Amino acid sequence: MSTLNNANLQLNNITVNSDKKKILADFSVTFPVGQITTIIGASGVGKTTLLNVVAGLRDFASGTMTLNGQPFIPKEHVMALVPQDYGLLPWETATQAVINALKITKQPINQTVITQLFEKLSIMDLKTKYPHEMSGGQQQRVSLARGFAVAADVLLMDEPFSALDTNTREQIQTLFMDTWQMKPGTTLFITHDIQEAILLGQQILVLTPTGAEMITHPEQEADLVARLKAVIGNG
Ligand SMILES: Nc1ncnc2c1ncn2[C@@H]1O[C@H](COP(=O)(O)OP(=O)(O)OP(=O)(O)O)[C@@H](O)[C@H]1O
């Protein structure tokens, strides 16, 4: 993916329908390439659907996606997805999950780098374990190892730290920033945690049932926490 100044990934008038309703209606947003956008909004407002559209996992009824004005075709980019349900395959051990993700995305397989990542995520003891042998928090850390191992152009994270305790969460936020800085992919990061959205996002996309707002300089905005609390509470 290009890292030109002002490069952007745009969703233009996207509509996603389910059987019963419109999930996204005529939805447009611009994401800066090579930056982290955190996404916040009430439960059910369409955050995961938006991520799945960008991942190419969700069809849309109308609209377009463009990268610097050209059609954006998800499968042509190196993508990493850390889904809400962790997305581990029952037949893959933790090590196999990471190695297969690297193979699929045609990335180099460096055992030393993988081991360092497992150490930093405190999952060395899970290397040969299958998902059914892990707790939710352990599965989430394996999913993060898989996401971080791939030097992605587009990194999509759906409440990626939700199953972690506070201390572990803070450590892994730091690991995330360190990893991301080595390869600053275009990152969409859904969270319900307002402090996390402000801490990690270069901008914050606030989704509401009636639309969306991009907060481009979160650090400069007074009363932002109160405003975001109201959005999540009222959704
Ligand atoms: N495949 C589907 N079929 C029918 N309805 C769906 C489908 N996927 C999502 N929805 C509905 O679309 C709406 C948006 O769902 P989505 O998962 O995108 O919301 P969200 O903002 O990520 O929610 P949460 O914060 O609870 O994860 C919800 O009302 C959900 O029930």
UniProtKB/TrEMBL annotation:
Descriptive protein name: ATP-binding cassette domain-containing protein
PROSITE patterns found in the cross-reference section: ABC_TRANSPORTER_1, ABC_TRANSPORTER_2
Cross-referenced SMART domains: AAA
Limits of the ABC transporter domain: 9-234
InterPro entries assigned to the protein according to its UniProt record, in alphabetical order: AAA+_ATPase (IPR003593), ABC_SmlMolc_Importer (IPR050093), ABC_transporter-like_ATP-bd (IPR003439), ABC_transporter-like_CS (IPR017871), P-loop_NTPase (IPR027417)
Keyword tags: ATP-binding, Nucleotide-binding, Transport
Molecular function as annotated in GO: ATP binding; ATP hydrolysis activity
Organism, scientific name: Periweissella cryptocerci
Source taxon at top rank: Bacteria
